[in-house]
Amino acid sequence: MRTRHGARPLGTARTASAAALAAAALMFSLTACGLGGTDDPDRKGSDPAPAGSSSERSGPKDGETGTPGGDAGETDGDPAAPLATIKGSGGFEVTYASAKRDSGGYLTITGIIKNISGKSQFAPLQWSGQETEVKQTGPSLAGMTLVDKAGKKRYYVLRDTDGNPLTTTGLSTMQPGQSLDFFAQYPAPPAATKSVDVLLPLMPTATIGLS
Q: Which parts of this chain are annotated as the region Disordered (predicted)?
C-alpha cells in the first residue's frame, strides 16, 4: 500500500484544527499501510526445507536438473542442494537429491542419473540386482542398497505384492548428456540413524544424510 500525498494548497491561511486533522489522517494512512505488509503469503508444497533454511520458496521447479543454488536470491540451506554427487568410470554421474522418511515407516531416495560419457550407452545390468524375480521386471535400480554402519544393517529396495521393485524401472539407452530422474524406496532405518551409505554397483559409495 502506498501513501499518496496531495499537493499543498496555496496561501498560508490554514487553521490549527485543519492542520491537526490532516496530520491525523496521514498517520492513520501510514499505520494501515504498515499493518497490511506483515502477513506472509502461504508457502506452496509440503516438503520441509533443510535445517537452517530461510528460503520462502518450494523445491526446484519440474524438470530442473541444474547445479545447486536454486533461484537467485536464495539464502543458505537451499532445498535444491544435492546430498551427494558421484561419478563412475563407466561415464555415468549420479546425484542423490533427497532421502526422506515418511509416517508409514519408509525411506524414499530420489535423484538424477546423467550420461557424461560423450556417447550413447546402456545402464549397467548390475544396477538391476541379482534376484531372479527382480530381473523379470527388466532394467531397474533394484541393485541399489543402503548400509547403516551404526546399526550394522543393509537395506534392500522394497517389493510390491507382485514382486516388482519399488524403484525406477525400464532403464534404456541414454544419449550423451541425457539425464534421468529416479527414485528408490526402502524400509526406514531407525530415527537415531542420521546417515547411510548408498551402494550402486560399479559406482563409488556415497554417504547421504537422512531427513
A: 35-86
| Whole-prediction pTM | 0.62
CB 184 within 8 A of CB 157: yes
Give every residue of the chain whose pLDDT is below 50, as ranges: 1-77
Which candidate, 54, 143, 144, 62, places its Cα nearest to that of 96? Answer: 144
What values do phi and psi take at 136, rounded to 5?
-65, -20
Q: Is residue 71 part of a domain?
A: no
Residue 117, in any domain of the structure = yes
Q: Position of cell 541399489?
A: 144
pLDDT tens digits along 165-208 = 999 999 999 999 999 999 999 999 999 999 999 999 999 999 99
Domain that holds residue 147: 84-209
Residue 135 lies in a domain: yes
